[in-house]
Amino acid sequence: MDRTPLSSRPLDKLWFLWFVFSQPLTAVIDGQAIYPRHLVPGFIRSLYLQALEFSKDTLMLGMEKQDPSLFWFKGFICLEVFFQLPLFFVGAYCLYYSTYKRARFTRETGVARREVQCME
């Protein structure tokens, strides 16, 4: 199957850029709501605090203050980091290589091979 270049698919290029730019934002900014604070480097922590100050996001500010009534939101952050973040990589891969049927992924550990349905 011939690969259509990403430059000739403007909508796919837009989605690809969204997937690529969302990866570090999810991992570095949103994920800090669930990461242990002692594992986060100081400069990344300050970036997170600046983002909170700029956006004034009440839910993320509540997570920063460790509000116990936001336990449900912590679950959504866990889903974002452990489910959505890996799918950002899958989506970017599928759009870049124009694999609309199936993309084959091999784990680095060699433990398992799986096929992931992409954009059918």
UniProtKB/TrEMBL annotation:
It holds the Pfam family EBP. It comes from the Eukaryota. The chain crosses the membrane at residues 71-97. The keyword Membrane applies. It is found in: Membrane. Its main location: membrane. Residues 11-120 form the EXPERA domain. Keywords: Membrane, Signal, Transmembrane, Transmembrane helix. Residues 1-27 form the signal peptide. GO terms for cellular component: endoplasmic reticulum; membrane. It is a multi-pass membrane protein. This is EXPERA domain-containing protein.
